[in-house]
Amino acid sequence: MLRLRRSSSGGIFLSEISSEYCKRTREVARELLKGISESLGLEEHYIDNALKLEKGTQVLVGNLYPPCPQPQLAMGLPPHSDHGLLILLIENANGGLQIQHRGKLVQVKSLPNSFLVNTGDHLEILSSGKYKNVVHRAIVNGKTTRISLAMTLAPSFGTVVSPAPELLNSESNPPAYSGMKYRDYLELQQSNNSTKGSAVARKRLPITIVRGVNHSPNNYKLNSATIPITRALEFSVSDSTPTHDSVQTCQIFLQ
Ligand SMILES: O=C(O)CCC(=O)C(=O)O
Ligand SMILES: [Fe+2]
């Protein structure tokens, strides 16, 4: 149960709710990562230790999708994958999230009182592709307002994420992802966003994973639209549907 202090006006402080929510969900995500470490044949605290999650980053994103008069003409959030390791999502109404499965976007039916857990870009990098990031999008509807809350657990900004050496083999499984600081990864993602400050700013171009054995941290240019050493993750989805104007998202970073 959450016990929260009330402000003098009787309201509950958002910062307290969000930090309490993040604290609890961090525990859930770290617990899940123990199982994921083991499923990779690694020791249960491997990911936690390797990425120093004791001092990790959390991003709490709130998305508000008001009813859209012509939902077939607009998109809530275009297809993208999330940075970070694991994403715990809750929503107030079922039926807005679609994930890519076998090349097609399929509707997700969430269970009541449960988290929807997606795997993010950095789990794909760390696991050397054994876990794939989940490409997903949010659609809008004509009747109800949908709100979703996504908590991402990620390493600290200065942590370099690269494939776990234990999972690599120079012949059968050579490194396909380059190591990169989480901060640089985020900057790279942001530099690919042409518009900032609105829902469109969250439209991420499909360059979400930096791969390439020839990569060294010096041969990409931040703030440049062309990043020669990156290879776009092969999305079979291309979606040019415009984002619905009144969709609002807000991101809080906690370190
Ligand atoms: O609203 C949703 O279901 C998805 C939200 C999302 O993908 C995000 O915040 O990154
Ligand atoms: Fe997302």
TrEMBL record:
* Coiled coil stretches, renumbered: none
> Which part of the chain is the Fe2OG dioxygenase domain?
55-155
The record's InterPro entries line, in alphabetical order, gives: IPNS-like_FE2OG_OXY, IPNS-like_sf, Oxoglu/Fe-dep_dioxygenase_dom, Plant_2OG-oxidoreductases
> What GO MF terms are annotated?
metal ion binding; oxidoreductase activity
Keyword entries, A-Z = Iron, Metal-binding, Oxidoreductase
Q: Where on the tree of life does the source sit, at the highest rank?
A: Eukaryota
Recorded hits in Pfam families, A to Z, give: 2OG-FeII_Oxy (PF03171)
- Similarity-based family: Belongs to the iron/ascorbate-dependent oxidoreductase family.
Protein name according to UniProt: Fe2OG dioxygenase domain-containing protein
Naturally occurring in which organism (per UniProt) = Protea cynaroides
